[in-house]
User: What shape does this take?
Amino acid sequence: MTVKAIEILRVGVPFETYGPRQGMRPGLNTSPWLVNESLMVRIETADGMEGWGEGFGHFGNPGTEAMLRDLIAPWFIGRDETDLESLMDDAHKSFFGFGRHGPCMYALSALDTALWDIRAQRAGRPLYRLLGGPAGDVTITRYASLMRYGGDEDAIARNTERAAGLGFPMVKLHERDMPAFMAAREAAPEGVAITLDVNCPWSVEEACAVARELKAREHVKGGFLWLEEPIWPPEDFDGLARVRREGTPVSGGENVGSLTEFTRAFRSGAFDVAQPSVAKMGGVSTVKDVFPLGRDAGLRVVPHSFYWGPGYVATAHIIAAQPQTEWLETAFIEYERNPHDLIDPVDPVMTLPADRPGLGFNPDRALFERYSISRTEILL
Ligand SMILES: [Mg+2]
Assistant: This one.
């Protein structure tokens, strides 16, 4: 069947963080972060099927949106979507010159995920089942990914305690200093893991020093489960391997752009935990293949999914399809209203129902209308 229409939507849902509002990367956004935005595509086929996908993300959405609207979505219109692999292969080969990473790949990621949604619906199965997962409903566990609180130890301790009290097995911080790290570690009981996402700030030497300090705090309730993206630049895989040798596990991969690059990262010994991102690195087609690669390399794959839209749901399906269970990253904020029934950021358990084909993404369109930032439809 051919692609008849592609709707491109940006929706920003207001949220509460229970602490001071900061951008995730200091200096990137100067105004407070008031709405959590999703850039979505909805593909409609000539026979009336519709599939949803999501592209990265947040404050960079205008770039991905322009790439979709002006270049990539029009290219997909009128093409046959049933042979997903060859369609995406053609698309990647047509657009790679505009970036094997960044807005071009984010746009292709959104469309790829939407096509997988349609494929699974045509098969009459939930996506996880199509990807080799079990029959029946699948329950997976969320982990709480905290907003950046700018080192505010009270807010960090309060929110860590709250997430632990709700039953989350792991709390991830987006802070950068030892007092902030320790505020979380001390606030959570020993059985709750604490991980540290620092978003690429340090040289290899600086990161090694932090990793040693963290190792020395192992006696405090088991210490820290991993240190995420400690160095600049994120693609310095040999540098990451050096940080790992200090004894604190290292995670990363949300800024890895392809399977080829992941293979190189695994060969270099860059990660203990790989974190591919479905809205960044090529959608379901690519992220599903990182899991077996990671297993072969003997490491955990715990995807990046600081999203609430179809990319979040697709990540849950990919996790649900794996032979071993893994946690689903969930932004620990409270939306004014949950935008669909598969996201509840304060519930540590998520169930994907077996009787919903595809992604099972049923958004609240009235809420989308209310919080719409932009909407474009590309038609045949
Ligand atoms: Mg991260």
In short: The pocket of magnesium ion is lined by residues 197, 228-229, 254, 304 (CB under 6 Å).
